[in-house]
Amino acid sequence: MSNGDNDKKDPKITDAIKKILTAGSPTDISKELLTTVVGQVLKTKDDITLKATNEMISLIQKIDFVKEFSKFAENHKFKVTAEIEIMKKDDSKS
């Protein structure tokens, strides 16, 4: 991706980065400029998180759980144990 592509995508962040890189000292970087950069970083983080979440959901939706469990069951033995206790009812009704 070239710098020209960045200018087309988001000129506000590109201008902010240019100002930071050309600043003579840390005091030359304004609060507004830092706010813009931090805001864009947070927006990018949210965009990446959303895309990753959507990809995970898409992958999970493609799984045929019945088919996968059937394959699993072909190669595994199941053992189920239970303990049942029968108790007499308390007949005292007052």
Please supply descriptive tags for the structure shown above.
single chain, 94 residues, mainly alpha, 4 helices, 64% helix, disordered N terminus
**Cα distance, first to last residue?**
84 Å
Task: Give the H and E element order.
Answer: HHHH
Number of strands: 0
Mean model confidence by pLDDT: 81
The count of domains is 1
Tell me what portion of residues adopts beta-strand conformation: under 5%
What percentage of residues falls in helices of 4 or more residues? 55-70%
Shape: elongated
Classify the secondary structure makeup into a structural class. Answer: mainly alpha
Please tally the helical runs, counting DSSP H or I stretches of 4 or more residues: 4
What topology does this entry show?
Blueprint: H1 3-9, H2 11-22, H3 31-61, H4 65-74
Helix pairs in contact: 1-2, 2-3
